[in-house]
Design brief:
Helix content is 71%, strand content 0%. It is an all-alpha fold. Helix 4 (64-75) crosses helix 6. It is elongated, with a radius of gyration of 22 Å. The relative contact order is 0.10.
């Protein structure tokens, strides 16, 4: 089972409350988590069994999707409120810089891998076409 940081969990739960009042299914689709997990967090919050530091992970232990979501959110925050937002999420400004590079590297790696796969498929297709021509 995937473990998410307390900061990420609280971030999701905040989005379900006013003023945003977003639905669990919307948040699940957007952040790649299950609806049942969100409802479980909400139920534990409502009955008081959700600990604030329960599930705390180091920033290195965060999933790439979580890092990407926090990066996107940080872009929408004005510079004068950036420090407060970073403290609320247990981050330093350096985390954002490092995570941005991680996301770039992941995207570049995926793009290169797709190109290599396409090249291999074209080569295989050409080989199969030659074999068909030979058999005819």
């Amino acid at each position: 089972m995937a473990r998410y940081s307390a900061q990420f969990r609280n971030f999701i739960l905040k989005k379900m409350m006013p003023p945003e009042s977003r639905s669990a299914s919307d948040l699940a689709k957007e952040y790649g988590i299950t609806v049942s997990m969100i409802y479980n967090w909400k139920a534990r919050m409502n009955n008081g069994t959700l600990q604030v530091d329960d599930g705390v992970q180091s920033n290195r232990g965060r999933k790439l999707m979580e890092k990407f979501s926090l990066l996107l959110e940080s872009r929408g925050i004005s510079e004068d409120k950036q420090g407060t937002w970073l403290r609320e999420n247990g981050l330093h400004s350096e985390h954002l810089t490092v995570w941005e590079q991680e996301v770039r590297d992941f995207m570049t790696k995926g793009e290169q891998q797709a190109r290599e796969e396409l090249k291999a498929i074209k080569k295989e297709l050409k080989k199969n076409q030659k074999e068909l021509d030979r058999k005819d």
